[in-house]
Write a structure and sequence with these properties.
The chain has 75 residues and is an alpha+beta fold. It has helices at 2-22, 40-74, and strands spanning 26-31, 34-39.
Length: 75
C-alpha cells in the first residue's frame, strides 16, 4: 500500500511540474486591494506551497486532537 501511495505522489508531482513549466506567462494577480503582475509559474508554486502547508497543518491538528482523545479514553 505504501508503494501505491508513493507512486501516486510521484505522478502528481510530475503533473504539477509539467503544468508549472508550461505556464510562464506574466499575469495580473489580485489579492485584496493589491494587483501584482507576476509569472504564472510563480503563482502556481506559491499556491501549491500554500496548499501543502495548509494540508500539513490540518494533519497536525487532527492528529493532535485524535491523540488527546485517545489519552482521555485511557485514563
Amino acid at each position: 500500500m505504501k508503494t501505491v501511495k508513493l507512486i501516486i505522489i510521484i505522478i502528481l508531482v510530475v503533473i504539477l511540474g509539467i503544468i508549472i513549466v508550461q505556464n510562464r506567462v506574466p499575469v495580473p494577480t489580485h489579492f485584496l486591494f493589491v494587483t501584482v503582475k507576476m509569472p504564472l509559474i510563480l503563482l502556481l508554486i506559491i499556491t501549491a506551497g500554500a496548499g501543502f502547508v495548509v494540508g500539513v497543518l490540518t494533519a497536525l491538528v487532527v492528529g493532535a486532537s485524535k491523540e488527546k482523545k485517545e489519552t482521555e479514553k485511557a485514563t
